[in-house]
Specification:
Layout: E1 16-24, H1 30-40, E2 44-56, E3 59-65, H2 68-81, E4 84-89, H3 95-110, E5 117-119, H4 136-144, E6 150-151, H5 155-162, H6 170-184, E7 187-190, E8 199-205, E9 210-216, H7 226-239, H8 244-260
Parallel strand pairs: 1-2, 1-4, 4-5, 5-6, 6-7
Antiparallel strand pairs: 2-3, 7-8, 8-9
Helix pairs in contact: 1-7, 2-3, 3-4, 5-6, 7-8
Length: about 280
């Protein structure tokens, strides 16, 4: 008679992913948006908060960066406690906090971490309010972006980081994506949602070729937090080991449907993004 205990079925745990970003009290952007997106894609989300933002859709009232000590403590305890499979950075607020994040990521790289790093270079809110100290831009250029698996700038952010005039055409997007990757040695997904036209096209330069990701533009919806949500979806899918092109396509499909199903939930004219849309294949 076999006295061995029955074998328990293997439990597949969700990948653990980390968002290093600001807190949006209206939950449309920042770490709140990231956590909802991580949950949608069946990952376990961690957060390291860099800044507290008082805002509602379309309006930033004030921001306050956390202390360097508390950001360092958050990152230290999370790295010690979890096997992190994906990391995204969003709003880093100040040069001092940016340096703490860069040091943390460099230490992970030195420890031979294989977690993909998605850098969403949040320079300003959708309303136009600045969200990053100018002094931090140099740290982005010298140290943060070269650590990225993928950078996801919008047109304004790419132009600022490359010292370019405004990017106004698909041809200029292609050129800027190539220049971004060449300068910072990271794959670049340049988001084209701010261009005029019937379609919204994002451009990926993977260091070898250009790939376009296109969806019909949704003209009657204007939610904030789309960039945060898009990069969080990419991070979650990469943590599941999806190939990059498949990851971006799925994330693009998700953000397109999330925008189309956004609703006006506040007294603002700006819609609130639906992070749990239905009818996604």
């Amino acid at each position: 008679m076999n006295s061995d205990p029955p074998t328990e079925p293997e439990t597949k745990h969700p990948p653990v992913v980390l968002s290093i970003a600001g807190s949006d009290c209206s939950s449309g952007a920042g770490i709140q948006a990231d956590l909802k997106t991580f949950a949608y894609f069946q990952t376990y989300g961690l957060t390291a908060v860099t800044s507290i933002v008082a805002e509602s859709p379309g309006k930033v009232v004030s921001t306050e960066a956390v202390s360097p000590e508390i950001l360092s403590a958050q990152l230290k305890i999370l790295a010690e406690s979890f096997d992190i499979k994906g990391i995204k950075t969003g709003m880093l607020a100040t040069a001092e906090l940016c340096e703490i994040v860069v040091n943390f990521l460099e230490d992970l790289e030195g420890a031979e971490s294989t977690a993909p790093i998605v850098v969403d270079p949040v320079l300003m809110a959708s309303s136009g309010a600045p969200l990053l100290d100018p002094e931090a831009l140099e740290l982005y250029r010298r140290r943060l972006l070269p650590l990225a698996t993928l950078a996801t700038p919008n047109l304004d952010e790419a132009a600022a980081l490359l010292n370019l005039p405004p990017i106004t055409s698909h041809q200029e997007m292609d050129s800027a994506a190539r220049k971004f990757t060449g300068q910072y040695q990271c794959m670049t997904l340049l988001k084209g949602g701010h261009l005029d036209g019937s379609d919204a096209t994002d451009v990926l330069w993977d260091g070898t070729e250009i790939h376009d990701f296109t969806a019909a533009r949704i003209h009657d919806k204007t939610p904030h937090g789309t960039g945060c949500t898009y990069s969080a979806a990419i991070t979650a899918l990469l943590a599941h080991d999806y190939p990059l092109l498949e990851t971006i396509k799925s994330a693009k499909d998700y953000i397109t449907v999330a925008i189309s199903q956004s609703e006006a939930l506040s007294n603002s004219e700006i819609d609130t993004l639906n992070h749990f849309p239905i009818s996604i294949d």
